[in-house]
Amino acid sequence: MITSSPIEQLNLPNSPLFGTDGIRGRVGDVLTANLALEVGYWAGIVLRQAAEDVGPIVIGQDSRNSSDMLASALSAGLTSAGIEVWNLGLCPTPGVAHLTATSDAIGGVMISASHNPPEDNGIKFFGSDGTKLAKNLQAAIEAGIRGQSGAHVEPERWGHLYFTPELITQYVEAMKDSLLPGTSLAGMKIVLDLASGASVDVAPKVFTQLGAELICLHDEADGDRINVNCGSTHLGSLQAAVALHQADLGFAFDGDADRVLAVDNLGRKVDGDYILYFWGQHLSQLGLLPNEAIVTTVMANLGFERAWQASGGTVVRTAVGDQYVQAEMASCGAMLGGEQSGHILSPQHSVSGDGILTALHVAAIVQQSDKSLAELVDSSFQTYPQILHNVRVDDREARLNWAKCQPLQDAIAEAEAEMGDTGRVLVRASGTEPLIRVMVEAESMQKTEYWTKYLVAIVEQHF
Q1: Are 177 and 170 in contact (CB under 8 A)?
Q2: Is 273 known to sit in a ligand binding site?
Q3: What is the pLDDT of residues 24-38, one digit of tens each?
Q4: pTM for the structure as a whole
């Protein structure tokens, strides 16, 4: 057994290591090689004890400069626990989930901080079924890291590390197989913004194989540029490219390609609410949408909700986070769900949110409709004015306990009372970034702007 690093050397926070999307933060602070080694070792111990048969663990990573270091340290921890490691190299997060679920792997790990800036990174775990690792197993891993676990298994042998990028071909083929037989994107001109991240190889390959004419932006893996003024959080360059090349539409992925936003042929943003609406209509026509239900979060626009209800459908809302959407979908048997941010879940096609797969289906829907994406948008619904303002709060404890701030609670209550059922307020701490998010939605932009400024001022004053 490899001797664990002293706990005091890990600089662990008092709050839980595992957040809404694994362990994430600034590399060099909490997230270090020492921590990754410990995480790997204890994940190996916990997952092998939970498995009936001990298989490999699949690892993928995005393009961040720190991803090689973290993947190497994590692999060292896993192999020291007697686990075989399959390292895919640069790979979208949903690729790791798919290959974990379709092999005899006992788990999967993605090294990525998704849409966060280059200096951040993260460690995200999947269970053997390709879904996010169960909370009790995350807690057991963290207990081991903190020296609070009596679990110990002396490995019968050291594990081995194998570099297996060829497995990604299986993921590419699965995405194509998820489309209706005979689907072709021939004749479509599509712009892809690959965010200098995990999708730079896979996305162009699968779109090209389906016949699309491509213009690719930020299409080289670059740890210094991942998500910087590009990708799904910065649509400006994609909108400009769609206009310049007179493309049919464009797609922007985030750093690990588990989410996507679109731009129509007029250069307008097409977010996850619209994607859910179009895909929901398509699945409904095929008889593949049980109870006409779509699961989304509290961030979804009221315009989308009321339009879907008017068409005879049902909208179920959850807290923000794809794990909550996925849990509710499993509970009610829904076959489509997701977030306004572009994280879309379609369990009949994929075990996790998949930006590339979602983009393929949206492109196919547009191709088969004989309409432009702009025409589909114009005939769907009108959004309510909505503003989301992020306030940076570096104090983690204060940020996570924002709800205890009485002046802020009073301000929220005042806004909600004034707007009644014509608007909504949502204040929450981000689970992945040092931010308190303030969202206001109302029938008029004037009200939306007024209450956003008012609430942001309160947050800034007290945090």
Answers
A1: no
A2: no
A3: 999 998 899 999 999
A4: 0.89
- What tokens appear for 350 in the block? 């994929």
Pairing state between β 23-26 and 120-126: antiparallel
Contact between 180 and 106 (Cβ < 8 Å): no
| Alpha-carbon gap, residue 326 to 338, rounded angstroms | 8
Domains belonging to the chain, first-starting first, are: 7-167 (3.40.120.10), 178-378 (3.40.120.10), 386-462 (3.30.310.50)
Residues involved in catalysis:
114
Q: Is 114 annotated as a binding residue?
A: yes
Structural contact between residues 329 and 344, judged by C-beta atoms closer than 8 angstroms: no
DSSP 328: H
To the question of whether residue 177 is assigned a binding role by annotation, the answer is: no
Which DSSP state fits 384?
Answer: P
**Would you state the structure tokens that stand for residue 31, as one six-digit string?**
């997230």
Q: Taking residues 320-345, what's their average pLDDT?
A: 94
Ligand-binding site membership of 254 (annotated): yes
Both structure tokens of 455: 């609430």
DSSP 17: S
CA dihedral 209, 212, 214, 218 (to 10 degrees): -60
Q: Is residue 218 within 8 Å of residue 230, measured between CB atoms? A: yes
- pLDDT above 50: residue 435: yes
Please work out, in degrees rounded to the nearest 5, the angle formed at the alpha carbon of residue 382 by the alpha carbons of 378 and 387.
Answer: 125
Enumerate residues 6+ apart whose C-beta is below 8 A from 378: none
Dist. CA 224–CA 118, nearest whole Å = 6
